[in-house]
Amino acid sequence: MNRYLALVLLVLLVLGLLHSLYAFxxxxxxxxxxxxxxxxACYVFLVAGKKWRQRSxxxxxxxxxGDDGPPAPRH
Length: 75
Hints:
mainly alpha, 3 helices, 69% helix, elongated
């Protein structure tokens, strides 16, 4: 995952959690529970991105025939 995207996602989750805690403290349960769909959406987004990355890593490139040894380490 891109660092900037991860940072944005982390900030959004923290802000959402803080909003939920504040809303629970005020007794506004409907507003406080809005965080759960956001958490589910983040989970689906992360899992889909991980599966997509694994598929793109498993498929051979244009010049890669798979018989020239192990892949080079990524930095």
